[in-house]
TrEMBL record:
Family, similarity comment: Belongs to the binding-protein-dependent transport system permease family.
Compartmental location: Cell membrane
PROSITE patterns named in the record: ABC_TM1 (PS50928)
Keywords, in A-Z order: Cell membrane, Membrane, Transmembrane, Transmembrane helix, Transport
Transmembrane segments: 21-46, 95-118, 130-161, 167-187, 199-220, 258-280
GO cellular component terms attached to this protein's record: plasma membrane
Name the record gives this protein: ABC transmembrane type-1 domain-containing protein
Organism lineage string: Bacteria, Bacillati, Actinomycetota, Actinomycetes, Mycobacteriales
PANTHER family assigned: OLIGOPEPTIDE TRANSPORT SYSTEM PERMEASE PROTEIN APPC, PEPTIDE ABC TRANSPORTER PERMEASE PROTEIN
GO BP term, pick one: transmembrane transport
Length: 290
C-alpha cells in the first residue's frame, strides 16, 4: 500500500514530459505557422516588389534573380503576391475562429447553466447549424449580399458556431457535476458568477483546441470562395485567388503561380491541423488527470 501511494505521488510530482509537450511535429508546426504569420504581418516591408504592379511586357517570366519564383500572367511578382496574400489568407480564418469561438462559448455556457427548455432549444439550433455546410451557407450569403472578404468571413463565422458550441457545452455540463460547483452554490454565489469566473476558465482550453482545428477548415473554405470569385476580389492578393488566376498559365505550361499558392495552402492547413490535434490531446490528458 505504501509503495502504491509513493508511486502515485511520484507521478504527480514528476509529470510525463512527453504528455506535457507538443512533441517534435507539434513544435515544428507551431514554428512554421508562427513564421508565416510574422511574414504576413511584415508583408509591406519584406515583399521584393509591389504585388499589384502589372507589367504585360514581363508576363510568365521564369524563376530567376529578378523574380525568385517568376511572374504571373499579368507580370506581377509571384513571391511578392504570396507574401502579400498571406495577410488575407490568415486574417480571414483568424477572424472566423475568434467570432465563432466567442459566440459559440457564450451560447454553450448559456445552454449548460440554464438547462431546461433553453438548453434544449439551443441544442436543436446547433443541430440545425450542422445541417448546412459552412461553404454552402457562405456561397448563399455572398450571392444574396455581395462578393467580398467581409461577407465571406461573417457567413463562415456563423456556420462555425455549432462546431465550437457543441463540444464546449458537453464540457461545461460535465464541469457542473464537480464538487467545487456545488460548494460555490452552497456559499451563495450565483450561477452566472460561477459561469463567468470559474466555468469559463475550465472550458477555454477545449474552445482553444476546437478553434485551432476549425482554423484549417476555415482557411480552406475561404480559399475556395476566393477561387470561385466570391471572396477576396482582384487586384488584391489571396492564395485561393492566385490558384484560380494560375489556371490560365497551367494550360500554357506555366505552373508556378497555381503550384506555389496551392502548396502554401496545403502546408499551413497541415501544420494547423497537426497543432490542433496536439492541443486537443493535451486538453484530454489534463481532463483525465483531473
Amino acid at each position: 500500500m505504501t509503495a502504491v501511494l509513493f508511486e502515485t505521488l511520484r507521478r504527480r510530482r514528476v509529470p510525463d514530459k512527453r504528455r506535457d509537450s507538443l512533441g517534435t511535429l507539434g513544435i515544428a508546426a507551431a514554428v512554421i505557422v508562427g513564421g508565416v504569420a510574422v511574414i504576413a504581418l511584415c508583408a509591406p516591408w519584406v515583399t521584393p516588389a509591389d504585388p499589384a504592379v502589372v507589367d504585360f511586357s514581363n508576363t510568365y517570366r521564369p524563376s530567376g534573380a529578378g523574380a525568385l519564383l517568376g511572374t504571373d500572367g499579368s507580370g506581377r511578382d509571384i513571391l511578392s503576391r504570396l507574401i502579400d496574400g498571406a495577410r488575407t489568407s490568415l486574417l480571414g480564418p483568424t477572424l472566423v475562429v475568434l467570432i465563432s469561438a466567442a459566440l459559440g462559448t457564450a451560447l454553450a455556457l448559456t445552454a449548460a447553466m440554464s438547462g431546461g427548455w433553453v438548453d434544449r432549444g439551443l441544442s436543436r439550433l446547433f443541430d440545425v447549424g450542422f445541417a448546412f455546410p459552412g461553404l454552402l451557407l457562405a456561397i448563399l450569403a455572398v450571392s444574396v449580399l455581395s462578393p467580398g472578404f467581409t461577407t465571406a468571413v461573417l457567413a463562415l463565422s456563423v456556420s462555425y458556431i455549432p462546431f465550437v458550441a457543441r463540444i464546449v457545452r458537453s464540457v461545461a455540463i460535465g464541469e457542473l457535476t464537480l464538487p467545487y460547483v456545488t460548494a460555490l452554490v452552497t456559499l451563495g454565489q450565483s450561477r452566472w458568477r460561477i459561469a463567468t469566473r470559474h466555468l469559463l476558465r475550465a472550458v477555454l482550453p477545449t474552445a482553444l483546441a476546437q478553434s485551432t482545428i476549425c482554423f484549417g477548415y476555415a482557411l480552406v473554405d475561404l480559399a475556395a470562395l476566393s477561387y470561385l470569385g466570391l471572396g477576396v476580389q482582384p487586384p488584391d492578393s489571396d492564395w485561393g485567388l492566385m490558384v484560380a488566376e494560375g489556371q490560365r498559365g497551367l494550360i500554357q505550361g506555366y505552373w508556378e503561380e497555381a503550384l506555389f499558392a496551392g502548396a502554401a495552402l496545403v502546408v499551413i492547413v497541415t501544420c494547423v491541423s497537426l497543432l490542433g490535434d496536439r492541443i486537443a490531446d493535451r486538453v484530454s490528458l489534463n481532463g483525465e488527470r483531473r
